[in-house]
Amino acid sequence: MKRLSATSLLCLLALAGCTLGPDYRTPESAIPAQFQYQDGWRTMPEQPWVAQGTWWEAFDDPVLTDLIRRADQASQTLAQAEARFRAAEAQWRLARGEYSPQLDASVNGTRSGGSDTDPGNLFSGRLDISWAPDLWGRVRRQVEAERAGLAASAADIAAARLTLQVAVVQGYVRVRALDRQRDILELTMAAYDRSAELTRNQYNAGIVSRSDVIQAETQRQSLRTQLYDLQQQRAQEENALAALLGVAPVSFSIAATEDLPLLPALPAALPSVLIARRPDVVVAERGVAQANALIGVAQTAWLPDLTLSAYGALQDDTFSGLFDAPQRIWSVGPSLALTVFDGGRRRATRDIAVAQYDEQVANYRQTVLDSLRDVEDALATMQILREKAEQQDELLALAEQNESVITNRYRAGMVSFLEVATAQNLTLEARRSRLDITSQQLQAAAELAAAIGGGWDLDDPVIQRIARPEPREQGVKSDS
Q1: Which residues contact 391 (CB under 8 A, 6 or more apart)?
Q2: Which family does it belong to (predicted)?
Q3: Reduced to 3 states, what is the DSSP secondary structure of residue 136?
Q4: pTM for the structure as a whole
Q5: How many angstroms from the chain centroid is the CA of residue 224?
Q6: pLDDT tens-digit profile of 368-378?
């Protein structure tokens, strides 16, 4: 009997180290060695903000830095993501709780009687303890799944923060571009005023007709109405930024300025490094790990569950004498439960887990492809805009020269005002187009910063603590 008991104990210990289900491996995905449009990617020497993850400092704009700081502190979108993280952390702790035994205590008091018996009191106190050894690794797999979900929730916070930061940068760039458009219109308005005065002088001298004066005034009035359109657009952009910062629009404003943020240089990243940095890729990859662990949870339903339990109870007809009562009841022993027939429910549960794993793998691979596409889009945009800006600079210089020549010819009475107006409008459109290109370059730089992962750092101690396997999970074999 002693040999049999020792053998049974050894078998139980061996089973306790067994974990069903496949061990996790990161799914393979097609990652190229380099980007298609990486030629001309502006790189830079090491900067402090690279290590700190404050990528927006590359724009060298203190107002923008302050806006992002305020958004990080008050954004309701981030507050939602952080609440989801706390829930995921609690879910992880809940799963870990199944490693420990459960202790319950109860005290009851009843009064009963009948037609042939006198009424009487009965008081009882009971203490129950139970523990279900993790024979097949169900708890380990569930903890593994919740740990992956917790890491995904942490990455989700980073993704939400990065999306918020990019939205603030792009909104701020649009506000500053509108300020520059206003400056361009005011500069053009000064030129139109000079042209209108010249036209009136020409008309008073009998050189031009009244129609030239009317055309000059019409041109000026059209420009004034465009200034109102800019005011409306700027107000809307300010309101959008206020919402991102988590404040009411009435309490938020940005002082106008003549300067745009600097076009930043961003660190180059290989595709393989990109995949490790992007928070949305991390979220998708942790989703695969979670689904993989849940396959093991589903497989344990085919095997019996062992529960070790014990309880002790006291009974007496008075509460004061309960702990001195002569009636003491106790029980101790194991319980083995196995589902013999369930109409296919366990098989269906396992099939669901496998299908959900396949779905998460496909989602991860698609997320990788989308991340590569985002980088290629941003790089292509920046490369094309850089070449377009050079051509636009030449066009603007030609337009300004043409306007100067036409204006001098008009003073000499050689051309009509229609040619002057045409030349001035061409210069205005060239300046606006050049500003649009700069604005697009700044926004593409923000998109590139987001595409290469922003400030997401996998070496963060908090993330390492979450993602690091527990000691009890190391060296566990699968499909035991």
Answers
A1: none
A2: Belongs to the outer membrane factor (OMF) (TC 1.B.17) family.
A3: coil
A4: 0.80
A5: 42
A6: 999 999 989 98
